[in-house]
């Protein structure tokens, strides 16, 4: 269960980082 949550957080983090790179 915790592994699934960790996976979701990682995906969100990567998505946010991609958004930041595209914005700049």
Automatic annotation (TrEMBL):
Protein name: Uncharacterized protein
Naturally occurring in which organism (per UniProt): Anguilla anguilla (European freshwater eel)
């Amino acid at each position: 269960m915790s592994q699934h949550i960790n996976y979701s957080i990682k995906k969100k983090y990567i998505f946010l980082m991609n958004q930041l790179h595209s914005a700049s």
